[in-house]
Structure formats: C-alpha cells, structure tokens
Design brief:
Blueprint (H helix, E strand, L loop, with lengths): L2 E6 L5 H12 L3 E3 H5 L9 H12 L4 E4 L6 H7 L2 E5 L3 H18 L13 H5 L5 H22 L6 E5 L2 H10 L4
Parallel strand pairs: 1-3, 1-4, 2-3, 4-5
Length: about 180
C-alpha cells in the first residue's frame, strides 16, 4: 500500500484515521479539505482544485483523506488501495455531533490559513451544517460505496471495508507497507 484513499460519510473519522495510517506507514498525509477550502468558507473552482490535487497524487506514496465524487476519475487512476470507513449510522451521528460541539467551543481553525472555524450557529442552525449534510447524505453515500465495492470496477485496487472503530484500530495496529 503506497497510494491509499480513505473514504466514508461525513463524520466517520476519515481525517483522524488517515492521519494515523499515514504516520504508521511513514508516508505523506493529504487532506482534500485543506486543498479545497479557502478563507471565508470559499473554495477553489473545480479545475483549480483538480490541478492542485493531481500535483499531490503524482507523488510516489500518500494517504488521501476525502470523498468528493467529482475527483474519483482523477484520484482512482493513482490509488492502489481504497479504505471505506463504513460505520453505523448511530456511531457516525454521535461522532459528528460530539465533534461539532467541541469545534464550536474551541473555535480552532480547521485548515491553516483559512480562518474557517465552526460555530453552534453554523453546525446546528444553518443550511451549511455538517450535521445536516451527514443526515441528508449518510444512506446515499453508504449505498453508493456498497455498489462500488460490489462492482469490482477497479480491478487492481485493494478494497478494504472497515465497519467498526474496533476493526479500524485492528487494521491500524497491523498495517504494513506492501
């Protein structure tokens, strides 16, 4: 495993898992949101984003954290492994609510240099709420990835489906560079 894409619904813990996996493998960690988001919750245009992402994907090894379906045609040309964090609805919902509360209190900048922070208003009383996004997209994302994993579309790509935090911990504890 040298080029790994970690996917999953919002709130599944992709960033945390990806960072730890990259550290365990001693390879670079790429967070798609860091590349995508600009100050004031603006974002790169699609062409600029894909150009920047491809520059990172051309490197010899990495763990890429992120879904963004519009990037699949690009990122999956490079991957050798896709890891799907497919946790239960209850676990994912609980995790995103707890994370949102913590981030609302801490006001910690999410991506360096953007000034973007989360707030109670944004997380709980806004159409831009990551919690609302998760609620609207959890089942759709789950079906999409289940269909993709069953299709075996990418023949030379290792597909790993982790269905619980315990499986993820076991995977991290036993992962080796292949």
């Amino acid at each position: 495993m040298k080029r790994i894409n970690v996917i999953g619904t919002s709130g599944s813990g992709k960033s945390h898992f990806s960072y730890r996996l990259a550290k365990n493998l001693s390879i670079p960690y790429i967070e798609m949101d860091t590349l995508f988001w600009l100050p004031n919750w603006e974002h790169l245009e699609n062409d600029e984003f894909l150009f920047l992402l491809e520059a990172h994907l051309e490197k010899a090894s990495w763990v890429l954290d992120g879904n963004q379906s519009k990037t699949n045609h690009l990122k999956w040309q490079y991957v050798d492994t896709i890891i799907w964090l497919d946790y239960s609805f209850y676990h994912t919902f609980k995790q995103i609510v707890v994370r949102s509360i913590k981030r609302s209190f801490s006001k910690k900048e999410l991506w360096a240099g953007t000034g973007n922070t989360e707030s109670f208003r944004r997380n709980f009383f806004s159409s831009d709420s990551v919690i609302l996004w998760m609620l609207q997209n959890y089942w759709k994302t789950k079906r999409k990835y289940a269909t993709f994993f069953a299709s075996q579309t990418l023949k030379n790509v290792r597909l790993v489906r982790l269905t619980s935090p315990q499986q993820a911990e076991h995977f991290l504890a036993n992962v080796q560079v292949i």
